[in-house]
Structures are given as C-alpha cells and as structure tokens.
Write a structure and sequence with these properties.
Blueprint: E1 2-7, H1 12-22, E2 27-33, E3 42-45, H2 51-57, E4 62-65, H3 75-80, H4 82-95, E5 101-105, H5 134-152, E6 157-163, E7 165-167, H6 174-179, E8 184-187, E9 196-198, H7 199-212, E10 216-220, H8 228-235, E11 239-242, H9 244-256, H10 268-271, H11 279-283, H12 292-306, H13 316-338
Parallel strand pairs: 1-2, 1-4, 2-3, 4-5, 5-6, 6-10, 7-9, 8-11
Helix pairs in contact: 1-7, 2-4, 4-5, 9-13
Length: 339
C-alpha cells in the first residue's frame, strides 16, 4: 500500500485529486494545505515552503504537488511565486527522504499558442523560451526545476503533468474569463482550437501515472478539439472578429493603463491553437471520461451557476479587449445614425 501526500488539497483541483485517489483501496491519501479543506482524508496542515514541514510531507511514498499557478492581483504573490517555492522545497526534501515519486502540476500553456503549432502538438513539442506573463513564466520555472531534478538523479522519479484548460468547480482560468466576455473574440484570419481537461480526468491521470510509474512530462486532455463554430453553438454567444494586430495592440494598451492585470500575451491562448496529444497516457490505458463538449458544458454551467459577471481586471485580456472595441463600435454606429 502506497502513502500519497497531495498538496493544495483545499483547492478545487487538489480536492478532486484527493477524492480520486482515496477511492483506491491500495492507496493511503494524506491531504496537505495551509488550511484544512472539505476533502475526506487524513489532513496535514502547514506551509510546504517551510523545509521542516516539507520533510514531513515527503515521508510519504508519493507526493503530488497539485497547487495551481494563478493570476494573482497581489504583488507579494507575484514576487514570491508561492507555487514554485513550494515545489522547490518539496523536491529538495524528497531527495533526502524515502519518497519514490513526485508529481508536479504544470500546464499545456508552457508550449505557448501559435498559428504555426501543429494540431495536435506532440508531447515533445519545444516549450516557450520565455514569457512576459508572470503565470506562464512561473510555469516555465516549474518545468525547468523539475527537469534539473531529473537530470541530477533518478530518485525520486519526477513527473510533470501538463493539462489543457482545466475545468473544476470554483476554479477561474483564462478560459472562464474569456467566456465571461460579452462576445467571443476571434481572429479574422486565424483558427482558434479549444481543448479542455476536466479535473476528474486529471485525477484519474494522476492515479495512472502513479500506478505505471511514468516519469518525465505527460500531457492530459480530452481527445480532439472544438472549433469556433462549436463554441458559438454551445455558448450561444456571437463572435467579434478582429485583426490579430488590433486585438493585441488594444490589449497591450489596456494592460499598460492598468485596466487589466493580464498582459496582452494572454490573448494568444484564445486566438491561436495549443492543442495537445495525450499519447503517453493513452499508451498505458488511460482515457478521459468527458469529451471537450461535455467539459465545456460543465464550465459554462459552473459560470452561470455562480452568476458572476466580472467587470474589473479579473475579466482578462480577451474580455477587456472585446468590451473596449465593442463599445467603440457602438459609439461609432450611434454617431452614424445621428448624422
């Protein structure tokens, strides 16, 4: 019987992983977070960035670092990079303990989004070299940290999980902000492709990786992808087509003025494809329980259930761009009618 510690267990993603692993009779699951959550498990409460506490966590056979890198309005969080600091503490502690396997949650966003990307991308697609987005930059640092650990030693085994857009109750992502905008921002001469990963499927992927002792990078996603016409059909929203250059320049001005905390580079993930192929997981028998359409419906249901319409910096680069350009278009139309 393996003992597994899951950090970030009070979050929607960590709690789902705890639930998924706890259903296995051959596993003992320990939920870890700075505060106790709702997950039905043995709890270890503390800050994993503390070396002494990290060593307590790494007395488990397997450690799943399930904290999500989020866009935070807090300057302190942006400066200290809490998820990265926690990963450093855990990997350092695990190297001196009996931990056999460490799983680190990253994102398929580390590949970047580009009109030149193959659809889908292979798992060995080169990662971004740098990013002006603090979220992506922290993810790239997580990847580099994990790669250095694997290069230094084969013990413990280190696996990096790269899910597509995560769908989880209570989890805000760039896509949930995108769908909160009044219109769908679409590039005039582009091909956005949408791919999701429901948190329950991420949990089953974690179990499969542990069972089959998979190391290195692993992508996790629904099979295939959705096109813009599918998004329009499922959301009922209308598109706003813009030249890519205009969309990026508008988003850059809004970020510079402090209207949105998201840099213009966030737009790339809503305008260009970043679809992945979860071939390593499929090779060990894993398959997602939800397809992209079902995952999107779950996301939309969650957003509508909360009834929140963001009108501040949290709306994101795409939403702010749509709002500003859409308002300008209405003003111009009104002036034409009155002239």
């Amino acid at each position: 019987m393996l003992s597994i510690a899951v950090t970030g267990a009070a979050s929607p993603v960590g709690a789902a992983i705890v639930r998924g692993l706890s259903s296995r009779p051959d596993l003992t699951v320990i939920a870890v977070d700075a505060q106790r959550g709702d997950a039905d498990a043995d709890w270890l409460v503390g800050d994993v960035r503390d070396p002494d506490f990290a060593r307590r966590v790494c007395s488990s056979d397997v450690v799943v670092h399930a904290e999500v890198v989020r866009r935070s309005p807090s300057r302190a969080d942006r400066a200290t990079r809490p998820v990265l600091r926690a990963a450093q503490a855990l990997l350092t502690a695990a190297a001196g303990m009996t931990t056999q396997h460490v799983l680190v949650l990253s994102s398929a966003q580390v590949y970047g989004a580009s009109p030149d990307h193959p659809v889908p991308m292979p798992e060995d697609q080169p990662l971004l070299q740098f990013s002006d987005d603090p979220v992506i930059d922290e993810l790239l640092e997580l990847e580099a940290l994990s790669a250095r650990q694997r290069a230094v030693s084969s013990a413990p085994r280190v696996t990096v999980l790269r899910p597509a857009v995560l769908v989880a109750p209570g989890l805000e992502t760039l896509l949930s902000r995108y769908f909160d905008a009044p219109r769908l921002l679409v590039p005039r001469d582009g091909r956005p492709c949408w791919q999701f990963c429901h948190v329950d499927d991420l949990a089953s992927a974690v179990a499969a990786v542990i069972e089959h002792k998979v190391d290195g990078p692993v992508t996790v996603a629904c099979d295939g992808w959705l096109e813009t016409v599918d998004i329009e059909r499922l959301t009922g929203a209308r598109r706003l087509e813009l030249p890519v250059g205009l969309a990026f320049s508008t988003a850059e001005r809004l970020h510079r003025l402090g209207v949105t905390s998201a840099p213009a580079s966030e737009l790339a993930y809503t305008l260009h494809p970043w679809v992945v192929d979860a071939s390593r997981l499929r090779a060990i028998g894993w398959s997602p329980s939800l397809d992209n359409e079902a995952a999107l419906r779950a996301l939309l249901s969650e957003e509508r259930g909360r009834g929140i319409r963001r009108r501040d910096a949290a709306i994101g680069a795409a939403g702010a761009t749509v709002a500003v350009i859409g308002t300008a278009a209405l003003v111009r139309a009104a002036r034409r009618r009155s002239s």
